[in-house]
Amino acid sequence: MCERHTSDVKQEQPKLSTRQKKLWELENYYHCSIIGTCLNLAELRQLARKAKISAPSPLNDYELHVIFVNLVKEPGPISRLVQKHLNRKYQRALQQLNKTPSPQDMTTYWKAAITTGDVAGAFWVLLTNPQTPHELLGQIYGEIHMLSHLAGASIRVDMQELNQLRHRRRRLEKQLSAEQSAARRKI
Q1: Nearest residue to 41 via CA among 16, 17, 18, 60
Q2: Contact partners, residue 23, CB within 8 Å, separation at least 6
Q3: Gap between the Cα atoms of 140 and 114, Å rounded
């Protein structure tokens, strides 16, 4: 009998899947970020109408978000509808990523998306690409998570400033009205 040395035998490399991951195949903790980052509220409402999701009273934004987060965890008509919508919406990003399949190129692609602020499409295509390295997925998820915190803090500051400006406007309108009345009396 002949013995083969391992150096004489070609080790078969496992084939990496090129099939895009489905929404329901992703880890559950990604669903909230996907629904919140990749879809706006108008799209969620449109998808809810299309899927005939109804409630006894109109759903508020958070309730709508939660319903979709839970529905996309399992394969079904609604998760397929959302998958199809996101693939259509981010078709250009999907095509771009198909041109850059190496881990280094994926990292560069993500960094460019962060720099330009155009993260939603990159987030979707990188999460659903079966070749995205696990470390990059962790980085992407963390950055999206922190962006949502930063956006929330920024919105709170903007709302405070808006309220201050509204109060100032009302004060100035009263002052202007008083000045106009005084000017009319003098005339």
Answers
A1: 60
A2: 31, 34, 72, 79, 82, 83, 86, 128
A3: 10
- Which residues, other chains included, contact 94 with Cβ-Cβ below 8 Å and sequence gap of 6+? 20, 87, 125
Q: Quote the CA–CA distance of 147 and 117 in Å, as a whole number.
A: 10
Residue in 12, 38, 30, 32 with CA at minimum distance from that of residue 132: 30
Assign 9 to helix, strand or coil.
coil
Residues near 139 by Cβ (< 8 Å), separated by ≥ 6?
Answer: 110
Nearest Cα neighbor of 127 from 39, 30, 60, 8 is 30
How many helices (H) and strands (E) are present in the chain, helices listed first?
A: 8, 0
CA angle 80, 84, 87 (to 5 degrees): 135
Predicted confidence (pLDDT) at residue 139 exceeds the cutoff of 50? yes
Angle 41-50/61-71 helices, nearest 10 degrees?
Answer: 60
For 71-123, the pLDDT digits (tens) are 999 999 999 999 999 999 999 988 887 765 788 889 999 899 888 888 899 88
Q: Give dist(CA 67, CA 117) in Å, integer.
A: 27
Q: Cα separation of 165 and 22, whole Å?
A: 46
